[in-house]
Amino acid sequence: MQQVFTKAMARNIFIGGAVFFLAMYLILTYDTWQQIPQRNNAEKMTPAVLRGKYLFDTNDCIGCHTLNGEGAYFAPELGNVYKRRGPEFIKAWIMSQPTGAPGRRQMPNFHFTQTELDDIVDYLQWLSNIDTNNWPPNIQG
Amino acid sequence: MKYQSQMVAKPYFIAALALFVGQIVFGLIAGLQYLHGTFLFPELPFDVTRMSHTNLLIVWLLMTFMGAAYFIVPEEAQTELYSPKLALVTFWVFLIAAALTIVAYVFVDYAHLAAVTGNAALPTMGRGYLEQPLPTKIGIVLVALSLLFNVTMTLIKGRKTSINLILVGSLWGLALLFLPAFYFPHDTVKASFAWWWVVHGWVEGDWELILGALLGFILIKMTGVDREIVEKWIYIIIAMTLVSGLIGIGHHYYYTGAPTYWIWLGSIFSAIEPIPFILLIAFSFKMLMQRRREHPNKAAMLWALGTPVMAFLGAGLWGFMITLAPAQYYMHGTNFTAAHGHLAFFGAYAMISLAIISYAMPLLRGRTANSDSAQRWEMAGFWIMVISMLGITLSLTGAGIVTVILQRAADDPMSFMQVQDKARVFFWAREFSGVSFFIGLLVYLRSFFIKGEYEYASEMKQALAA
């Protein structure tokens, strides 16, 4: 056994496996790149959506929330929040933070302007139309 | 210790342990904020606690990997490190940059931090684990370049063992896989897809190679088994890591907007991701059985054998639990993921770090092994931390089950916060396990303050009496 299967063979399996599956991954990634713009309506990313996204990122929303299941598990899912709550509720909610309710999890107040709130809602609306293979299972996220 | 320049590993290991303590403190605060949401609010919002917790984890693991590289590469290459001075300067740069970043997280509002660090020019902030402002990210690249230059030059002028080639090669991989941190496309789906190049690429790919190299090195040294046998095993193990893990990345692409074929590819390939961990267990225990010497550092052996077992549980078993697409449909984005993340990071990467520290630190302090008494403290710390981490994992799994039953799979699903209230008992259990983990860490650290070295004479006496 020792002679039949040498270290050099093991190393070649490692290198061959790595190269083959990396190549396969790169091909699949190329194909994915072509498909994504249809699955998420990329053409609907208006300047307002992009501004909303920038606010979303620089205020670290996913430090507490999930977005399509990724992020932190401290606060509700945001990928479908537009469909769950609607634009007016979302804006009112963000403005009224923090609730200060004793012991309850708190969301900071980010002092957004009305335009910024509209941008964020536009981004959340765009997010809610991404084809995520029917995830989450229901509206509660 | 064979080469004077290996000494440069020592400050890396000491700083790593200090940062580890910081990580656990932030973890305890975060766990408490789950239960008492107003705790330290608004001074320390949950997201800041969390990013401090996760970033400290990454920094202390990187600190250990770097220390390990400076310790192992010269010994394997049978030559002094190319530039110990550069390694020492790099250490201080890395430590100060890391400390400043955490201070900035805690004391500067995140949006403000983004504004003053040039995030608008090249947006990189606001992604999990990659929250660092641009100057920190650039600093990480510079530190990595310095490390790569130093260890590669050492490797070139010395003996090229397989352990060294795998270690240095995977450090190059680590640095290259960090570069997508600078790529943050507007398209959220593409951004998420590319974010996994860093995160999955590190923890389910490249870092497993580092783990293999470190464990291989420790076992060669401690068991005296022929290097050819050890290195052959390591090549097979890391081959399986990449064969399963490269396409296995698909398990992150089911429900984030990527095409549907990832559901099939991800499920099939990630289902075989536990195999390298099973092989790792078989390998370490086989080396233990075939050992040609009794190494006096029993604590290091305990870490070295504990690592594959706990890594299998965390990465293999808990990873498998959530990886198949139909299961993940309900478990995605719940505390199941947090349970898996905690046990996998601890079992694989925290434990291999503590294993190499346990092996190398006595040597760096001028002894083969610590005294019996110090080793007893260290091993007590091992068991308390391991059992506590299993407690954290089971608690978070319980919280995940509550979410799946009441929110995800229910006919009449409850809202997120209602479900969180129902899971409180599990969040308490997690926090108690966390406190217990912290006690384990203190017990472990206590072992470093017990003087003296291992005495062969007393062992001889015991052996003769028996």
Structure, explained:
- The complex is a heterodimer of chains A (141) and B (466).
- Chain A has 141 residues and is an all-alpha fold.
- Helices cover 52% and strands 3% of the residues of chain A.
- Chain A has five helices and two strands.
- Chain A is elongated, with a radius of gyration of 22 Å.
- Chain A starts with 6 loop residues before the first helix and ends in a 13-residue tail after the last helix.
- The mean pLDDT of chain A is 96.
- Chain B has 466 residues and is mainly alpha-helical.
- In chain B, helix 2 runs parallel beside helix 5, helix 7 runs parallel beside helix 10 and helix 7 packs parallel to helix 13.
- The longest helix of chain B has 37 residues.
- The model of chain B has no long low-confidence stretch (mean pLDDT 97).
- Classes of the chains: A mainly alpha (141), B mainly alpha (466).
- Chains A and B meet through helix 1, helix 2, strand 1 and strand 2 of A and helix 2, helix 4, helix 7, helix 8 and helix 9 of B.
The biggest sheet of chain A amounts to:
2 strands, antiparallel
Structural class of the helices, strands and pairings of chain B?
mainly alpha
Q: What general form of chain B does the structure show?
A: globular
Low-confidence stretches of chain A: none
Q: Radius of gyration of chain B from the CA trace?
A: 22 Å
Q: Please write the string of helix (H) and strand (E) elements of chain B.
A: HHHHHHHHHHHHHHHHH
| Unreliable residue runs of chain B | none
Helix-strand blueprint:
The complex is a heterodimer of chains A (141) and B (466).
Chain A: H1 7-39, H2 47-58, E1 66-67, E2 70-71, H3 81-85, H4 87-95, H5 114-128
Antiparallel strand pairs in A: 1-2
Chain B: H1 9-35, H2 46-77, H3 84-107, H4 110-116, H5 134-157, H6 162-178, H7 188-223, H8 227-248, H9 261-271, H10 274-289, H11 298-323, H12 325-331, H13 335-364, H14 372-408, H15 416-422, H16 424-446, H17 456-465
